[in-house]
Specification:
Length: 463
């Protein structure tokens, strides 16, 4: 079977002076699969990119973030190839300009010995992350955040001088294009070892620079029902969200429900992220407004009135600053706005159909995701009476998930009567009153109280 590297070699077979560099070479040494390739080109980068694009039958375009670099996309986005001009007179000189030694490694595209002047292979063997040169972070402050990303993705430990140098340059992340910051942050949050990556992000000072709202949660005291401050709680919510992503059946205690949840979380959402990865961002940001809303509680600790509503607006601001898509911003903001709502229903079980309908209407299209965030949030809250509260909450979620999943996939039942028809039948003009009547009919229909057009009209007359 022909892989991306084979296709690229075929497409550039007549070219000389092209090296495979960085991650693709590194991952082969680590035995990791990779679908993205970086090439250093001694000749005409544009011509090489155009020729490769014709061969793989994909688009080619210049990258605005790195002058002279081009990207080629494989068919159906199966792989990406970035082609950059050789930095320096030789490939050895080029490698000294790269970020870390483990990425400062190359091999001629057509084959040949490794070019490893900075001992990348030795650092990989030692599981060490080391800057490629003394100006690595000075040349590009984004590498401070990339340090955390590479470390958590590959399971590497930064060596002391590299860590110290990264910390000195963390403040300059504010000068970096936010699209680039988000691209690195997204990969930290999506990594298997996301918690380790965030810990390193915080340790270097990168978190204070790129996510000051998350950094501000440190030391924020909560109620007696919490066992951690707001920051520690947030990290545990993320940990629980990752656990749901990995084994929903075990956490929910229901194999069928768990399988349906796992399938939904695997679906693409926005910004090349799945719903599971978006849930991770919601876990990180859902309590971001707690420092802004902290209020002393007469019974001890602090409450945070309105932190869900204020937090939704704050999430829009944070993700807008990071240049995330409108779809992602709205999704995470909606989860933040509604994350407390399931908890309010715990003491109303068993839920009547009207209550279920009210929840679904209020939270769509994040009716399922909200329940999952609430599970992660509740399971990470282990203060007073934690076990009892968690079990009650899981019971509620098991009750709400089936109708929520059905609603998400199939939508609400088709209306029994249109608004214009109802207005004619009742002799009223369109407006807020008509809208309220239609909403009441839909609720009664979901509850099984009306099932035909005539019954819907009679119900509206009675209202």
């Amino acid at each position: 079977m022909t892989g991306p590297l084979d296709l690229v070699r075929e497409g550039l077979a007549g070219e000389d002076g092209i090296w495979l560099v960085g991650g693709a070479v590194r991952d082969r040494l680590l035995g990791r699969p990779t679908k993205d390739l970086d090439l250093a080109v001694a000749g005409d980068v544009r011509a090489a990119a155009k020729g490769l694009a014709r061969h793989v039958r994909g688009p080619a375009f210049e990258l605005s973030e790195d002058f002279g670099a081009w990207r080629v996309i494989g068919p159906e986005r199966a792989f990406e190839v970035d082609l950059s001009p050789l930095r320096g007179a030789t490939i050895e000189e080029d490698l000294t300009h790269r970020d870390f030694t483990v990425n400062a490694i190359a091999q001629r595209l057509v084959g040949g010995d490794l070019v490893d002047a900075l001992d990348a292979a030795a650092d990989l063997e030692a599981r060490t992350l080391r800057a490629a040169g003394p100006r690595s972070f000075a040349d590009d402050p984004l590498r401070v955040l990339r340090l955390a990303r590479v470390a958590c993705e590959l399971g590497l430990t930064p060596e002391a001088d590299t860590l110290a140098d990264a910390t000195r340059h963390a403040g300059r992340l504010a000068d970096v294009a936010q699209e680039r910051v988000f691209a690195e942050l997204r990969r930290v949050v999506a990594a298997d070892a996301a918690l380790d990556g965030l810990a390193l992000t915080n340790r270097t000072g990168a978190m204070a620079a790129v996510l000051p709202e998350l950094h501000a949660l440190q030391g924020v005291e909560q109620t007696v029902y919490h066992h951690r401050d707001a920051y520690g709680h947030t990290l545990e919510v993320l940990e629980q969200a990752i656990a749901l992503e990995r084994d929903a059946p075990a956490i929910l205690g229901d194999d069928d429900l768990g399988a349906r949840v796992t399938e939904l979380l695997s679906r693409p959402l926005a910004d090349e992220m799945t719903r599971a990865e978006a849930l991770r961002f919601a876990a990180l940001l859902h309590d971001a407004a707690k420092p802004l809303t902290q209020t002393p509680n007469p019974k001890g600790g602090f409450g945070f009135p309105g932190h869900d509503r204020v937090g939704a607006d704050l999430v829009e601001t944070i993700l807008g600053r990071l240049r995330a898509s409108v779809d992602l911003r709205r999704h995470v903001a909606a989860l933040t706005r509604h994350h407390l709502r399931p908890g309010f229903l715990v003491h109303h079980r068993p839920l009547d159909p009207r209550t279920v309908h009210g929840y679904l209407k209020a939270t769509e299209p994040v009716e399922v995701d909200t329940l999952l965030l609430s599970v992660a949030d509740r399971c990470a809250t282990r203060g007073r009476k934690a076990d009892e509260a968690i079990e009650k909450h899981l019971g509620l979620v098991r009750e709400l998930l089936p109708p929520a999943l059905d609603w998400h996939d199939h939508g609400p039942p088709a209306p029994l009567v249109r608004g214009d028809e109802l207005a004619r039948e009742l002799g009223i003009t369109p407006g807020p009153d008509l809208g309220r009547l239609l909403a009441e009919i839909a609720e009664a229909q979901y509850a099984g109280e009306v099932s035909t057009r005539d019954e819907a009209i009679r119900y509206a007359r009675s209202r």
